[in-house]
Amino acid sequence: MFKLAQTEGWLEIMYKATDESKWMGWIFFLPFIFIGCFFLLNLFDGIVIDNFYREKDIMLGIEKFSSGQKLWIQLQSKVGTQKPKYEV
């Protein structure tokens, strides 16, 4: 299963299994590869992105702020980038 999830050499295993049970092997292998690989890829991406945002907070010095203080900073940055709708 681990070798299948890594997608390294999984074709040999799939061919051996499908030789014995023709189409029943395909029912297991294809969903396992698609679901397993997408799950692992998304898990890896989530970890990388979470660590990126954590390091960004540390660099900006806001890692010790409360959630309310972080929300206030986000709102202030959004308000600062807005332009008036109407010119006077």
Architecture overview:
The chain is mainly α. The protein has one domain. It is built from four helices and no strands. It has helices at residues 2-6, 10-21, 23-60, 67-81. The protein is elongated and about 75 Å long. The protein starts with a helix and ends in a 7-residue tail after the last helix. The mean pLDDT is 81.
List the helices and strands and how they pair.
Blueprint: H1 2-6, H2 10-21, H3 23-60, H4 67-81
**Number of helical segments?**
4
Task: Indicate the radius of gyration in whole angstroms.
Answer: 24 Å
Q: Assign the structural class, choosing from mainly alpha, mainly beta, alpha/beta, alpha+beta, or little secondary structure.
A: mainly alpha
Instruction: Please trace the helix and strand order, writing H or E for each element.
Output: HHHH
Measured by DSSP, the beta-strand proportion falls in: under 5%
Distance separating the two termini:
67 Å
Number of self-contained structural domains: 1
The proportion of residues forming helix, as a percent range, comes to over 70%
Instruction: Describe the sheet with the most strands.
Output: none
What is the overall pLDDT average? 81
